[in-house]
Write a structure and sequence with these properties.
Layout lengths: L1 H16 L1 H30 L10 E7 L5 E2 L15 H10 L3 E16 L2 E10 L3 H5 L5 E2 L15 E4 L1 H7 L10 E4 L2 E8 L15 E4 L3 H4 L14 E2 L2 E6 L5 H19 L8 H9 L2 E6 L8 H35 L2 H9 L4 H39 L14 H27 L3 H6 L7 H37 L9 E6 L8 H16 L4 E7 L10 E6 L11 E3 L2 E2 L3 H5 L3 E4 L13 E5 H7 L3 H4 L3 E4 L9 E7 L15 E4 L9 E7 L7 H11 L6 E5 H8 L1 H35 L1 H9 L4 H33 L12 H27 L3 H7 L1
Parallel strand pairs: 2-10, 4-9, 6-8, 17-22, 19-21
Antiparallel strand pairs: 1-11, 1-12, 3-4, 3-7, 3-11, 5-8, 6-9, 7-8, 13-23, 13-24, 14-23, 15-16, 15-20, 18-21, 19-22, 20-21
Helix pairs in contact: 1-11, 2-9, 2-11, 2-12, 3-7, 9-12, 9-14, 9-21, 11-12, 11-21, 14-21, 14-23, 14-24, 15-19, 21-24, 22-25, 23-24
């Protein structure tokens, strides 16, 4: 122990004697370790971490495939993933008739208006079955949680559980909130408890403010009332999670549930009276049912975030490897100047183990300080990363940026591995010292093995730098292509926000009038040129569709006739500047009781009518057309746009008047301005508040800001990749500079002799940089094919750029050459400036 303390004190003295060297190493390690800790913070929550519930390994969820004909909604609005969702009657059948689960819970998301002490806000909510908390094995922080008795008959259980975060941030963490009343969508609910502190939701990445029973769904989600979701077999909207009975494996549950599934599907088949024989076969016989592991929770965002996180984790891993190599190189160069010191210690009888211990402790101190700095940096980077990747505002992030015990353990392990790697480099140098040679010389020398390691290290750094630069170039080109492509409408002077009167307690009968009044008052604001609204907002990932029949067109048996179906108010296309190709827009006369009309997009017109002009006056019918009633007349055709995201054009779409909707609900408002849109945001909020103080203006932002949110993944990948690549290039340049500077110092006598014998100074410069130039060339040649291979692996993340992109590859090589040339310039200049006589006299 005394020896250890002595070595530690000596290590600290040595590092204090070289503050510049110590600071360089600590900063290098902090950047590499901090970047890894930040990325792992999100990587762990999205892809690795189990739900913070009792025995999460017993949890499973369900996924089905087969024919589907009905309405659906999902977390995030993706209509393609309907196989993850179930109707409420099917939920009850699965819950009550299975033999392999101790229980099955159901859950769905909602956006509600919450009023507390006369302050109205729009918040997320989770609609859950009464056994939700019991099945997950959770205990309340305050009060009690739901039981099945809190979820009985429809609209008969006005109770709520608030999340721990909402209780702390909005309710003042007051214990007396239990029993108090809170308004949800204008209806009184009694707070019965507070959810546990470490639990957000059974759905990954979802952080609701409150929980309400499924029996209250028509109050929490008013637009569901006409669908009668609690009885409708053809409306899929619930995510189901089950807990296996003791002794039952997932494989056994899977086999048992498949039989039950086919039986229940057969019972539902009579609901589809006009179904074809093929539909019947796909609905029952060919339908599949799978029991999947749910220990990590169902996460709708996992697929979208998985590849970006793997890419970022890979880049961060490469960066920490570069940092470790760079530090190892610096320690080797420092070791060269300590040759006389270590040789003297050996000559005086020091044991090899004591020398090794000293060097390991010095490296360990550097590694510890670097890791501590990296952990301190990690939450700041992680917070930015979460906001960028999830397009969330500060305070509403779906994932935590704090460093917990899992991140600490990961960082500790990473730090130990990196520290051992760079600490061992000088150990090998001094493991078998050449005492006589070292004591005779005034400067230290590196062994041939050390010299080989030094060259290999620089080569690896250059190769990884080219690799990271190329990847950054591909992602930046993707981001740039997405940013500059045509959306089909204009965003420059648009302001958008969500407005849902039902969240303030308005009935459906009054909702459309409130929306109309809001449009009218906003239109009169100074600087506002046009206002309109839609039920299917642009570039937020949502999708709203329905099945349509076209008069005179007979679809094939398997043809998909489900199309995007936004409901819009008059002047919508002129407000967002989506071009009207032919016909007219909707007007205030297109209301209930008037002839039903539609506007289609160019994709729909080309598919069914050939040209936009041929579409005007043609008839449509919403539904399958089993009972022909083509009562919707096409009155206009508009251009195609990018709707759900920036990558894909909206397919065939049918726009219908909002004012002809039977059951109107909330909308996304769009306000076109003449001055910069940010100048009218305050006036918009104030105007809506004056119209009715209970109305909530949710997510008010410019449309340009919404576009930035839509391209969040690409922007995050591009700029983080550029950051990693820039750091890698700087590290490679520092490593090359250190090696060349030391090489120049060691060859001073040789350079003096060459100059004295008449060698041109240009030849001396070439002598210094030639070997490293060859290493850099070989490293680049090795890196380029690797870059192309990795580009193919992640090509789904690219847009408008090939993996073998000459601009990207050439740019990566050019930047590398420029940076390395700058790094080599100073040592080469010193070599050329050597005075022969002075060099010879010094030796």
């Amino acid at each position: 122990m005394n020896s250890l303390i002595q070595d530690l004190r000596y290590a600290l003295r040595q590092l204090r004697k070289s503050p510049g060297f110590s600071l360089t190493v600590v900063v290098t390690l902090a950047l590499g370790i901090g970047a890894n800790a930040a990325v792992f913070t999100l990587f762990d929550q999205v892809l690795l971490r189990m739900l913070p519930v009792q025995k999460p390994q017993e949890l499973v969820r369900f996924e089905w495939n087969g024919a589907f004909n009905g309405s659906m909604s999902s977390f995030g609005g993706d209509r393609k993933d309907h196989h993850n969702y179930f109707s409420y009657p099917m939920y009850k059948d699965l819950r009550d008739q299975n033999q392999v689960f101790s229980g099955i819970l159901a859950t769905d998301e909602a956006q509600v208006g919450i009023s507390w002490h006369n302050q109205a806000e729009s918040e997320s909510a989770e609609v859950v079955s009464g056994n939700y908390f019991q099945l997950l094995g959770l205990n309340p922080a305050v009060g009690r949680l739901f039981t099945p008795q809190d979820d009985t008959a429809k609209d008969s259980n006005p109770v709520t559980v608030v999340s721990y975060n909402y209780w702390r941030t909005h309710l003042g963490a007051a214990h007396d909130v239990v029993g108090q009343t809170i308004l949800i969508n204008g209806h009184s609910f009694t707070i019965i408890g507070v959810a546990p502190a470490n639990f957000d939701s059974a759905i990954g990445g979802y952080r609701p403010a409150i929980f309400v029973p499924t029996s209250m769904v028509e109050i929490a989600i008013p637009w569901r009332a006409p669908i009668d979701d609690l009885k409708n077999h053809q409306s899929v909207w619930l995510t189901l999670v089950a807990r296996l009975k003791p002794g039952i494996t997932r494989q056994q549950a899977d086999a048992s549930m498949r039989t039950l599934w086919h039986s229940l599907r057969a019972n539902e088949l009579p609901l589809f009276k006009q179904a074809s024989e093929r539909f019947r076969k796909n609905f029952v016989d060919l339908s599949t049912f799978e029991v999947l592991d749910d220990s990590k929770g169902f996460n709708p965002n996992r697929t979208d975030l998985q590849k970006p996180l793997f890419i970022l984790m890979s880049m961060a891993g490469l960066l920490v490897i570069l940092c470790a190599i760079n530090v190892a190189t610096l320690l080797l160069l420092r070791a060269a100047n300590r040759g006389r010191e270590m040789s003297m210690r050996y000559a005086l009888g020091a044991r090899r183990s004591r020398i090794v211990s000293q060097l390991i402790i010095e490296g360990g101190v550097l590694g510890f300080v670097g890791a501590a700095a990296g952990i301190a940096l990690a939450p700041l980077v992680a917070a930015s990363l979460v906001r960028i990747l999830t397009s969330s505002d500060p305070g509403s992030e779906p994932y935590s940026a704090s460093v917990d015990i899992r991140v600490l353990l990961f960082t500790l392990g990473l730090s130990i591995i990196a520290t051992l790697f760079f600490s061992v480099a000088p150990v090998f140098h001094f493991f078998r010292p050449q005492l006589a040679g070292a004591l005779r010389q005034n400067t230290g020398t590196l062994s041939k093995d050390s010299q080989r390691f030094r060259k290999l290290a620089v080569g690896v750094q250059i190769a990884l730098s080219v690799l990271l630069l190329g990847g950054a170039g591909l992602f930046f080109r993707t981001f740039d292509n997405l940013r500059h492509q045509s959306l089909g409408f204009e965003t420059a002077k648009l302001v958008t926000f969500a407005l849902d009167p039902t969240n303030s307690g308005y009935s459906e009968d009054r909702t459309s009038q409130i929306i109309t009044n809001s449009i009218d008052v906003l239109r009169r604001l100074p600087g506002v040129t046009s206002v309109a609204a839609t039920t299917d907002p642009e570039l937020v990932g949502d999708s709203e569709g329905s099945n349509f029949s076209v008069q005179g067109y007979k679809p094939s048996e398997d043809e998909n006739m489900n199309f995007e179906q936004p409901r819009i108010t008059p002047d919508y296309f002129s407000t967002i500047h989506q071009p009207l190709l032919t016909g007219r827009e909707f007007t205030a006369a297109d209301t209930k009781g008037q002839p039903e009309v539609a506007i289609i997009n160019l994709a729909f017109a080309k598919r069914f009518f050939g040209t936009p002009q041929n579409a005007i006056g043609r008839q449509l019918q919403e539904g399958s057309g089993d009972k022909p009633n083509y009562n919707i007349t096409i009155v206009g055709v508009v251009g195609d746009i990018r709707h759900t995201d920036l990558r894909t054009l909206l397919g065939a779409a049918v726009y219908l008047p909002y004012l002809q909707q039977k059951h109107p609900h909330g909308v996304q408002m769009y306000v076109q301005t003449s001055p910069p849109p940010t100048t009218v945001e305050g006036a918009i909020r104030q105007t809506i508040h004056q119209l009715d103080s209970t109305l909530v203006v949710d997510g008010l932002r410019t449309m340009n800001a919404q576009v930035e949110r839509s391209e969040a993944d690409e922007r995050a990948l591009a700029f983080l990749a550029i950051g990693f690549a820039g750091l890698a290039l700087i590290l490679a340049a520092v490593g090359l500079y250190g090696v060349l500077a030391y090489s120049t110092e060691q060859r001073t006598r040789e350079i003096g002799v060459r100059l004295a014998l008449g060698s041109p100074r240009s030849v001396v410069v070439l002598l210094i940089v030639r070997e490293m130039a060859i290493i850099a060339a070989v490293a680049t040649v090795v890196a380029l094919p690797s870059l192309i291979a990795l580009g193919r692996l992640f090509r789904s993340q690219l847009f408008g750029v090939s993996t073998f992109d000459p601009i990207t590859l050439g740019g990566a090589v050019t930047l590398t050459v420029i940076m390395l040339s700058l790094a080599a310039a100073l040592p080469a200049r010193r070599a050329a400036a050597v005075e022969p006589m002075q060099a010879l006299r010094t030796e």
